[in-house]
Amino acid sequence: MASQKKQKKQIKNQLSRKKSIRTNIRKTKSDQLVQYVKKFQNQFKLNQLDQDNKEIIPSYQSIPTSYQLKGKKKFQKKEAVKGLVGLKNLGNKCYMNASIQLLSNLQPLSDYFIEDFQLTEINRKNPISTQGLATVAFANLIKSIWQMDIQKLTVKGTPIIIPEEFNKIIGYCNKSFSDNSQQDAQEFLMYLLDMIHEDLNRVTFPIKSVQLREYLGDCNQRELERQAAETWGDYLQRSKSIIVDLMQGQFKNSLKCLSCDKYTYKFEPLMYLSVPIPEQEECQLIECIKEYVKEEQLTNGNQWFCENCNKLVDAIKKIDLWKLPTILIIHLKRFKFVENGIKKIEQAINFPLESLNLSQCLPKLQKEKPIYELLGVVCHTGTSDRGHYYTYARSKENFNWYLFNDRQVKQINVTEIPQEDAYLLMYGKSTIPLIKRQTISFPENWPHVIK
Asked: Stretch 261-269: mean pLDDT, rounded?
């Protein structure tokens, strides 16, 4: 009996020592990360101070799109093409690598960072930003990809970058991305874009509180357009950045009470479309978008509180796309909750490579036709709990298509992109030559048709 008690005590002590060791390891790693970030911040401040003593980089007023540049560059077959760089996977980070390669090949955004426009726009006073950490780490990585010695691109094999700095900084800013657990590429991409937006928000803090306008009753298209522009002006009082300029549009969110017919609506900013997938034999992308904007009945446990009726009522909710951004990201909702967990929808989606015309999904009053060309695709293969992300993207240098799969980079035919694995689609508006800076002072640059 005494022997058993002694044995149990020894086991308990061993477990306690192991737990203590694990705790110390985690603390050491945490302390090392904090020291790394402090060193990164100090270097960042020194670079910024050095920049402040030089000629000020002018803020951009507009950025040319790839459609304006297309055809101006001619490459010989053996000439090296910049940007064709692989990324080492630092432990289940394929979701991160795929997102980086997608944005790296987004010409207006990568040009913005290569030209160092971000140096004069980092907003350290924004309390919900990363104080420039995420943006500087991302900018450094993008410049490393595109400014790699072109001679290295001509040697046999794909040049590789180890994105250690970016990986550590992002893990420090958001603990969800700090370990080797699998993460969702769409969630990471939206987090990264959101942090870049907050880091580069041109609005002076503290922000004046601006309440979202709510409108009652229906009216004609001209009046709706005026209201949408009015709301966009309010939005620019608290949100202005390269991300707003490139990737944000607007939708109309309306509710109608089925008891008293009260009709109310708001205009809200749009960052991306997260569209459902109708499970049918053949599915077109436009059908997914139409499903996204379909009327929704709010009944039973999902009723709406009507102030007129002063009670929960059945209602109709409707989303209408109003202004689509220059760069449109479409998230195909391939994962859905079922009784036994999460199911992946393997449905092939037929998405156009060019001339995606979304006019039928928008009101007629538009400054330019909403016609898009495909720029990149993030794919997911495998199951919901064991999967892999990789990217297909069109090079901003020679406009050929390439596969970016962690370390691997190779040229492909665009028809090789598997429609059943497409998860994120990135489109660029082909009817706009310049992306204009959104500011309250120049409403003529807004996407609205204003008299």
From this structure: 96
Please give the helix or strand (H or E) that residue 12 lies within, else none.
Answer: helix 2-52
Quick: pLDDT tens for 66-82: 655 554 454 455 567 89
Query: To 5 degrees, how large is the angle CA 59–CA 114–CA 68?
Result: 80
Distance between CA atoms of residues 297 and 303, nearest Å: 9
Strands (E) across 145-209 are located at 160-161
Q: Rounded to whole angstroms, what are the CA distances from 369 to 289, 373, 378?
A: 17, 12, 26
Rounded to whole angstroms, the Cα distance separating 247 from 227 reads 21
Distance from first CA to last CA of the chain, Å, rounded? 93
What's the pLDDT tens digit per position in 201-220? 999 877 777 889 999 998 99
| Separation CA 168–CA 12 (nearest Å) | 35
Angle at 99 between CA 136 and CA 251, to 5 degrees: 95
Active site residues: 94, 388
User: Based on the number of CB atoms within 10 Å of its own CB, is 106 exposed (0-12), middle (13-18) or buried (19 or more)?
Assistant: buried
Grouping H, G, I as helix, E, B as strand and the rest as coil, residue 109 is helix
Cβ contacts of residue 120 below 8 Å, gap of 6+? Answer: 56, 57, 59
DSSP character for 70?
T
Rounded to whole angstroms, how far apart are CA atoms 423 and 72?
32
How sure is the predictor about 150, in pLDDT bands with cuts at 50, 70 and 90?
low
Helix axes 107-114, 94-104, angle to 10 degrees: 90
Average pLDDT, the chain: 86
Q: Are 353 and 330 in contact (CB under 8 A)?
A: no
Task: List the structure tokens of 131.
Answer: 């104080």
By the 8 A CB rule, do 442 and 349 touch? no
Question: What does residue 68 show for φ and ψ, rounded to 5 degrees?
Answer: -75, -30
Residues 6+ apart with CB under 8 A from 247: 193, 271, 272, 325, 326, 327, 328, 329
The model's pTM is 0.88
Distance CA 164, CA 174 (A): 15
